[in-house]
Structures are given as C-alpha cells and as structure tokens.
Design goal:
eight-stranded parallel beta sheet; single chain; 8 strands; alpha/beta
Length: 261
C-alpha cells in the first residue's frame, strides 16, 4: 500500500528541471509525494520558487543561501518581506553558513545569516537552514535569536545534532542516509533524532539515493524518489515506512503551521 509523503526540500528551480516541472510533479504525485517545499537560494530563484509553488499548489521558501550571501544588497529585507507576503511562502531560507565551499566570505555569510534570522523573527516565519563545517558558529548565531525551523540535509556529528535539537529545531534527512559509505555516521545518529522532530527531503536534483536501482540515466534526483529515504529511515528506526511518512508529514505541517490549511 502506498503511503503519502511531504518532500521538505526541492531545488525545483535548478536548470536540470527546466521545461520539465509538470512531468516531475506528476511523477512525484504518482509516487505518493503530496506536497513539497520549493527552495529559494537567492532573490531570483526565490521569485521563481514562489511562481512554481503558486502554479502547482505547492510551498516555497525565500532567502539567500550562504553560497550567494555575497549577492545580498541593502534591499534584502524589503525583497524577502515582499515575497513572504505571498501565501505559498512559508519559510525564510535557504540561509545559513557553509565553511566547506566558502563561495562567499565567512564574515559576509555570518552577516547575511543574521539579517535573515532577524527578519524571520520579525515576520514569525520558520527558517530553512543550511550548515556545512560551521556548526559552532551556526549554533552561536542561532542562540542570538528566537526562531523555529529545520536544519536541512543534516550530515553533522553527534555534538552538532545535540545542539540543534536543544534549540528545538527539526532535522531534515536526505538521500545522504542511503549512502553506505559517507552516510555511515549519519545512519548511526538517526535513532538519536526524536521522530517527532524528523523531516524527509530529496534536495533534488542533488543527492540521489545510492539505493535507487537501477539508476536513472540522468543520475538526477527528483521528488518521486523520496520513498528511498523513507525506507532507509524506517529500517534504522525499526518501524514501518508508512509510520515514517506519517510522522514526517505531521511534523512538516506542525512546523510550518499548516495543520488547519
């Protein structure tokens, strides 16, 4: 029996999906993905994410990814506030810190991250968070604000996980958990994540689960493959995949205030 899921993070504006949005969403629906959060990574992609969400009855975020922090202008708050006035926008982000790639200077990343957290606090919106190799600074900055949200695509260690859970954050898990090589540490940490704080996401078109057999010729991930993440988590928790789908859907709706919608 098919179970219904919510994909808590899709980069549907990525060029790999150009001209294929309708087909991708149709496959997702057929695979049991009833809703998805389409992620904005800069002002342009946030506008496009909103347009796609409005067109296809989905949800969107609006924000500046740490990779793109250097593109933020003095009008950032005004731009994001305008986007957030549209009903499909339910989160500020993707925002955070990335010391792995350092595509934007770290001081710029921190400043732009603080500006988005302050805005999320002001607008009373959840944040969609990105962090790589920066958990100490991330936790320190988050403690300066009162926000709720999800730490997307968590791949950190036990100490970072404990810090994020202490702050009340939800934890987003992607196909990284399906990787028997680099995902081994994450697999061991999964039972430490309370299931009422878990979200599942594809981060499509990235991070296609290694458990997908056969691999699509494109090697591209998409929301229709979310059940591979769900199935692996079910094994690690020792519960049915339908329960993982149920809890994560309820968690998504609770975090983003969608229970009554």
């Amino acid at each position: 029996m098919q179970y219904m899921m919510i994909d808590a993070g899709v980069n549907l504006t990525n060029h790999q999906f150009d001209g294929q949005h309708q087909e991708v969403l149709a496959r997702a629906k057929e695979a049991g993905v009833k809703h998805m959060l389409i992620i904005g990574c800069d002002i342009s992609s946030s506008e496009e994410s909103l347009a796609l969400a409005a067109r296809y009855g989905q949800y969107a975020s609006a924000g500046i990814h740490p990779h793109d922090a250097k593109t933020a202008t003095s009008e950032l708050e005004q731009q994001l506030t305008k986007l957030a006035q549209s009903a499909p926008v339910i989160a500020i982000g993707e925002c955070g810190l990335d010391y792995n790639r350092d595509f934007s200077p770290r001081d710029v990343q921190r400043a732009v991250f603080r500006r988005q957290l302050a805005l999320a606090e002001k607008l009373n919106l959840p944040v969609y968070l990105h962090e790589r190799d920066a958990s100490d600074d991330m936790l320190s900055i988050l403690n300066e604000f009162t926000v709720r949200g999800v730490l997307h695509c968590f791949t950190g260690d036990a100490q970072a996980l404990a810090g994020y859970l202490k702050l009340g954050l939800y934890i987003g898990i992607t196909g990284w958990v399906c990787d028997e090589r680099r995902g081994k540490e994450l697999q061991q940490l999964i039972p430490s994540i309370p299931i009422e704080r878990l979200l599942i996401e594809t981060d499509a078109p990235f991070l296609i689960p290694r458990t997908v057999k056969p691999k699509p010729k494109s090697r591209r991930n998409e929301p229709a493959l979310l059940h591979y993440v769900c199935d692996t988590l079910a094994q690690l928790y020792g519960i049915p995949a339908s329960d993982v789908a149920k809890y994560t859907s309820e968690n998504f709706n609770h975090l983003f205030g969608l229970e009554k919608k």
